[in-house]
Design goal:
This protein has one domain: Pnp Oxidase, Chain A, CATH 2.30.110.10. The radius of gyration is 15 Å and the shape is globular. Strand 3 and strand 4 form a beta hairpin. It is of the alpha+beta class. A seven-stranded antiparallel beta sheet has the order 2-1-5-6-7-4-3.
Length: 138
């Protein structure tokens, strides 16, 4: 996929990302995330005390896979380096945008208020590499 194609693919509808981080003991940890793109950054929220939050504090590397689970199957994997934002206004602003993407504009503020609180991070993952494959079973 071209740059424009993979960006459109990951931003279409409500596809979730699967974020992979490395635990302290070296084992992988993968969880689904809601996210949005902001230029060359992928943004999502997580609790500071979650496995993702603690892992990213220790090691900022993260990999996010977004896929289409219908034939002929396509996916985009983004390798990134995360920075953790704790400014509550910024966390709430982006939590509202992310909530709007997944739950609709009428519920965006509800999710912004829920996730934009002390103890939550806005993860700003700077994309360093993209692997994008369309129609892998085509």
């Amino acid at each position: 996929m071209t740059d424009d194609e993979w960006r459109e693919f990951v931003s279409t509808g409500t596809r979730t990302g699967k974020a992979a981080v490395t635990r302290k003991d070296g084992t992988p940890h993968v969880t689904p995330i809601w996210f949005v793109l902001d230029g060359d950054d992928l943004l999502f929220n997580t609790s500071a005390e979650s496995i993702k939050g603690r892992s990213l504090r220790r090691d900022p590397r993260v990999s996010i896979c977004v896929d289409d689970q219908t034939p002929p199957f396509s996916y985009v994997t983004l390798l990134a380096e995360a920075s953790l934002v704790e400014d509550v206004d910024e966390v709430r602003r982006w939590a509202t945008v992310i909530g709007g993407r997944y739950m609709g504009a009428d519920r965006a503020r509800e999710f912004g208020d829920r996730n934009g609180v002390p103890g939550e991070y806005l993860v700003r993952a700077r994309i360093t590499r993209v692997i994008a494959e369309r129609a892998v079973a085509g």
